[in-house]
Amino acid sequence: MSSPGRILIVEDDLSIQEFMSMALEDEGYAVAIASNGAIALDLVNSFRPDLILLDMLMPVMDGRAFIQAYFEKTKSPARIIALSASRNLNSVVNLKGVDAFLAKPFNLDELLDCVHKHTSGIALH
Amino acid sequence: MLRASRHWLLRYSIPVLSVAFIVFLSHTLATGSTVIVLVLCTTAVLFSAWAGGWGPAFIATFLSAAVLDSSSTFLLSLLAAVSAAASVLYETTRLSQSRLQEQQHERYAVTLASIGDGVIATDAAGRVEFMNAVAEGYTGWTRQEANGRAFPDVFQIINEYTRQPVLNPVTQVLQDGKPLDLANHTILVSRDRREIPIDDSCSPIRHSENGVDGAVLVFRDVSERRRIHESQAKLAAIVESSDDAIISKDLNGIITSWNRAAERLYGYTASEAVGCPISMLIPSDQPDEEPQILARIRRGERIDHYETLRVAKDGRVLNVSITVSPLYNAEGEIIGASKIARDITERKRSEERFALLFENMPMMLLAIGDNQKIAVWNRECERLTGYSATDIIASPDWQAVLYPDANYRQQLAQERRARGQDYTGWETTVTCKDGKTRIISWASIAQSVPIPGWATWSMGADVTALRESENRSRLLMEQASDAIFISDVTGKLLDANSQAVELSGYSHDELVQLSFSQLTDVADPAEFPPRRDPLQNGQAVLSERQLRRKNGSLVPVEVGARMIQNHTVIAIARDITERRRNEDRQRFLEEATAVLASMFNYEIALKQLARLAVPDLADWCSIHLIEPGNNLRRIDLAIDKPSHTLTHLGELREHFPYDPSAPSGIAQVIATGQSIFIPEIDDNTLQHFARTPEHLAAIRALKTCSSIVVAIRARGKSLGVISLNMADSDRHYTRQDLMTAEELARRAGIAIDNGNLYREAEQSRQIAMNAAERTARLQAITAALSEAITPTEIAETIINQGLSILQAQTGTVSLVDDDDPGRVRIIASIGFPQDVIAEWRQFSIDLSAPIADAIRQQNPVWLQSLAERIERYPHLVLQSDAVAWAALPLLVEGEAIGALGFSFSLPQSFNEEDRGFMLALAHHCGQAIRRARLYETEKRIRAEAENAIRARDEFMSIAAHELRTPVTSLRGFTQLVRHQLDKKGIVEPARVQRTMEVIEQQSEKLARLITQLLDISRLDSGRLSLERKVVNLTSLTKEIVMSARTRTSQHAITIHAPSEVLALVDPLRLEQVLANLIDNAIKYSPNGGLIDIEVSSVSSSTIAIAVTDRGIGIPMEQRDRLFERFYQAHSSGITVGGLGLGLYISRQIVELHGGDIHVEFPDDGGTRFIVSLPTGLSEEVKQATTGEAS
Question: B975 and A109: CB-CB below 8 Å?
Fold first, then answer.
């Protein structure tokens, strides 16, 4: 059975990185981790994710800056699920390129449902 | 052939040729016969001697001797003897012949020279050979010059009428060989171009039968002859054309010639008269006349202008004047007489007519004969004098009758003649036969044309009636009250009456030497007498002029003039000085009234009035008004010629000021309203007015000669005085002048009264207007202030409005400093230079200055003049060039919050309104600033509140975020474990282990966050308390570092510290501070690196702990805000997590300890936080606790 998809986790909090990667690997996804936007930009070329789980509030390069740089750089971008502990969602939801939004703290099922939903089409290919 | 004049070459060639011929002949004949040769030689010698004289003969002899070859001495001697004899013979003959010729020639020459005609001889070729002296004279050529010249060169002739050259007679004679007698009318043109009329004749000279050897021309000057001929012809023409009859007769009385005038006079033709006896012309009743005339002629006498009668052919008797002269023959014998007769019939008649005219003409005609007796005494003479001609001629003493004043007449005549006048006129009073007297005016003309028989003559007319009439006129003239001048048309004065004498100041005799122009003002010379044109039209001309008196002064006169009979001008002049003065006074009053009426400012009007009065009404005029306190104030002083008068008046006023209590003078006039009128000021008058001798001297110096002082009054009260004075012009006031002055004063009084009333009304109106205007202004200011929000805007608005209304130079608004009530700050100023603004931006409230005083004393400061400024603020005089100042406190709720200040470049008199207005301005200003401050305070508080709310919201947001992150992690791990448990029924132990660790870490993190939030809460409410104890900071720091090392693997944390650093601190709080600093250092060095911690004692009472990282540092613009609440460096864009409360809480804790935390940024990057703390330990405590702490 082939991988249901390749997921890049961009998150500065180490414990959140850890639990999300454990959960997604359990589901069979190929997972890569970057602790800020700048590292993620370096990774996207080699890793070629299908989905990016992107925390919006990070040091060095935050989610918003990453999206802008990523879309400039990539012709066929991955789907992006934004993550944020902030309740000011408008700025994130309306952001171009963001396909879904998960507010922290979220439940594991919510995370997995959302990931599955945004990777289901990809698996068929 | 014997010609002495023959050329020497010819003469000497003869012997040579003749000898040569002999030689040739003897050779040809080939004869050797000596004799033949000798004969031939002798012949040659003889021929040479004949032809050439002794010289050639001698040469021939010599040559012959050579031919003969000298063979025979005898022959030679013979030849010599023959030749000598022949030479002597021929020479002698030739000499005598030549002398004879010369003698003959001499004779001809003398003959020709002595004749009166010009003679010129030529040779056959027509060249001049001879001319005599007369010919030389006529032609202008000398004989030597003319000799050999062609005749026409010497003798040029032209036709008298045509002036063309005439054919030369010599040429013609030489051609024709016949003598020629040329026609007349030839003119010889001499060498020097003179023209001489000549008669000439020319004859050929013949020596032989056929040839003509030359010609001789004889000519003479005919001008004299022609003149005689012409004068005879003229004489005949004169006689023939004369108007006088010219007759000649012989001694027998037989007529021998009779000209045309004689034909006309007597009626006989010449042919009828000639040959008849002259007696046929003589009237038959005078038979003796002709014989008497003839007798006188015979005696050689001449009869001149003999008047007699003659009878014409037709029997008319003619009056003739005859001149008879004897006629002489060539021998001087009287052979007859010439007689010239003129018809004088007409003259005779006219003489008779004149005599009748003289006799009967209506004028006296008196002629004195050559014998000094009366020659003519006509009928008019008889009628007027009563003396008949017989009477007067018989009178031995007629001159005394006719010329009782003869001496005068002669004198007069001489004078006139001396002046070149030939007319003499004089008057005599003749005593008539009946004893009455008559005035006769005589006239005589000097006898440049003498009348025969009259030595002198005069004509006279009776002018008795005329003179009487003239005397009456004269009397009339003198009776007239006006000055009368009589002049000729040129303006030359002929007469003047005594009034004219008085008016002009000249005597009568002086006047008649003058002309009108000398009596006229020089500025107006053409106008006096009035223009002649209308006069010549017979019009009377009336005009006003200035008459110049003898002393030079001018008198205004009214002149009426009329010309009488085109030769006399009568001018009647009337002195109108008084009338003029009245007119001047009236005009002055009118002008003064106009001036007074036209001006509401009566001071200006009075000044103009004083100037109007001078010089017509006064030499100097002063006007004074009474001021409050009974002082006199001079309004104006007008002086005609501001010279000494001004000086003296000045001195007078200075030394003798007005004394209201003086019993006389101006004080009296003011007190009583009674005028002072002194037409003539003499020294007594001055003494009367003088207060002291010095005063007397001063008023004497003014030289016032006439004076009027009148009071200016209105409504029964004296307001001032007008003083009119005459000095230099030597004029004197009259009653009329006084009345004028009083009228003037009355009108001035009314004008001043009106002016005062007007001024009061105007002032009231002005006050009302000002009040209205200021109210409007204040309303405008209020409106403007409502737009102004800040105190500075309000202050500028107030100053701007105040400057424009008050005409102030500068304006300021100063406020007491909010923070330092001892200082005053200028918040707005207008009109000051920059340096002054800089110097006075703020100053102490205790300063002695208008603004500070106004604030301190809560009262306005008014400084109206420089003097007041100097008096009150001498130390500030140089600080400002302003003259006046006003400083007004800004009072708000009984407190002075500042002051409004204005300065003025001109002195001010702040009246109630001004002060009220400025106080109102200050009030408005204070209230507006108060409102603005309240508004600002309110705004600030609201902003602070809003900021607090916003900060709280932000804090809540950050706090929530920070809290959610560990919650997410906790929830994720626990659900993952349960998820695995649900799916597999079993959880890997490693995962459980890891989950437990995460739960522990994240719950610690949550606990720390909650502590921080509680700390903040405590700090905000002031409930954070320290539990101090003596701590060894080195030990404490080491524990903290050990803990920190567990949280990072990337960073190397080192400690530099002495073994013991004691301080009295709350160890838990200080640990919180240091842990926070080290966590920050870790957080801001994301790439790892060295973190250095140093603990040191700065002094005995201060310690320092420094935390230095090599991390990303802090951007420059954010360094100031590091210690603010909720501040996170890099909060935009780069987030490092945390509440951002760490440094804020650390600072609060350090400050609670009485210490200080600050940050440094080393040049090589990174950040260094330094905490300074007081040890909080006295030496004793230190000593006491050292052991315990360690």
Answer: yes
Category of B566 on φ-ψ map: left (φ > 0), alpha (ψ -120 to 50) or beta: left
What is the SS3 assignment for B812-874? EEEEECCCCCCEEEEEEEECCCHHHHHHCCEEECCCCCHHHHHHHHCCCEEECCHHHHHHHCH
Q: How many interface pairs between A and B have CB atoms less than 8 angstroms apart? A: 82
Q: What tokens were used for B34?
A: 């000596």
3-state class (DSSP) for residue B84: helix
* Beta-carbon separation of B972 and A86 below 8 A: no
Name every chain A residue with its beta carbon within 8 A of the beta carbon of B971: 105-108
Give the type of residue at A22.
Answer: M
Q: Specify the residue for token string 């009782």.
A: B404
Q: Is the pTM of this model over 0.90?
A: no
Tens-place pLDDT, residues B426-472: 778 888 888 888 888 888 766 656 677 777 778 888 888 888 888 88
Q: What pLDDT is recorded for position B114?
A: 74
- Mean pLDDT, residues B59-77 taken together: 72
Q: Does B858 touch chain A (CB under 8 A)?
A: no
Contacts of A65 in chain B (CB under 8 A): 1133
Share of chain B above pLDDT 90, in %: 9
Cβ neighbours, 10 Å, residue B1001: 16
Q: Is residue B1133 predicted with pLDDT exceeding 50?
A: no
pLDDT tens, residue by residue, B138-151 = 888 888 888 888 88
B377 three-class SS: strand
Count how many residues are written for chain B: 1190
Residues of A with CB below 8 A from B990's CB? none
Return residues 60-89 of A near B (CB < 8 Å).
60-62, 65, 85-88
Tens digit of each residue's pLDDT (9 = 90 or more) over B769-809: 877 887 887 888 888 777 777 888 888 888 988 888 888 88
Q: Which residue of B has its CA nearest to A111?
A: B972
Q: Phi, psi (5° rounding) for residue B6?
A: -60, 150
The pLDDT of residue B658: 77
pLDDT higher than 50, residue B850: yes
Task: State the best of B956, B975, B1048 to mutate against chain A, taking most chain A CBs within 10 Å.
Answer: B975
Token readout for B1161 is: 């940024």
* Closest chain B C-alpha to A19 CA, distance in angstroms: 6
Q: How far apart are CA B215 and CA B123, in angstroms?
A: 7
Report the run of H or E that residue B204 belongs to, with start and end.
Answer: strand B195-205
Task: Using the CB atoms, write b or e for B160-193: b if 16+ within 10 Å.
Answer: eeeeeebebbbbebbeeeeebebeeebbbbbbee
Q: Is B661 or B308 the better-scoring residue by pLDDT?
A: B308
Q: For chain B, what is the mean pLDDT?
A: 81
The per-residue pLDDT for range B1136-1159, each reduced to its tens digit, is 456 667 888 888 899 989 999 988
Closest residue on chain B to A27 (Cα): B980
The Cα–Cα gap between A13 and A7 comes to: 17
- Surface of B (36-95) touching A: CB under 8 A: none
Sequential DSSP letters for B679-718 = SS--HHHHHHH-SSHHHHHHHHHTT--EEEEEEEEETTEE
CA nearest to B136, candidates B111, B119, B148:
B119
What local confidence, expressed as pLDDT, does residue B1163 receive?
82
Confidence at residue B536, expressed as pLDDT on a 0 to 100 scale: 62
Q: What is the pLDDT of residue B857?
A: 92
Q: How far is B1093 from chain A (nearest CA, A)?
A: 25
Residues in chain B with CB shorter than 8 Å from the CB of A22 are 976, 991
Amino acid at B1006: L
Backbone angles phi, psi at B512, to 5 degrees: -75, -5
Q: Please, how many CA atoms are within 13 Å of residue B687, restricted to the half-sphere of its CB? A: 3
Distance CA A105, CA A86 (A): 10
